[in-house]
Design goal:
By secondary structure, the chain is an alpha+beta fold. The protein has one helix and four strands; from the N terminus they run αββββ.
Length: 125
Amino acid sequence: MKSRKNAGFSLLEVIVAFSILAMSMVVIANAFSNAIRAAHISSAYLHASTLAQNKLEQLKFTRLTEGVLDGVFETGERWRAVIKPADWSQADLPILAYDINVEVSWGAEGGRTVQLDTVQLVPRL
């Protein structure tokens, strides 16, 4: 007769072990999938932030007038800039202050957006 010590694993033990392994693999695969998705979204936000910063810098070196400008970047993202006199800008100062707001949107119907603001000081003419 065989002793129980040398019997090995029962079929039920093997099935339970594989079930636990399979569930663990699903959880790990889901975690990797979420991490990849988060990295992709983060990359898109970084790209949009860079485009918005570049557009702000470009606008700072143009003659500013109150108004709304918009357009589309070569990579497909849409941008919109709102330029208006700053609320705190005073008439007796030799400079004008403009609030510049740039918004970059991408995705279906502009689903995601990045918005940057700055104040630009220009001499009065």
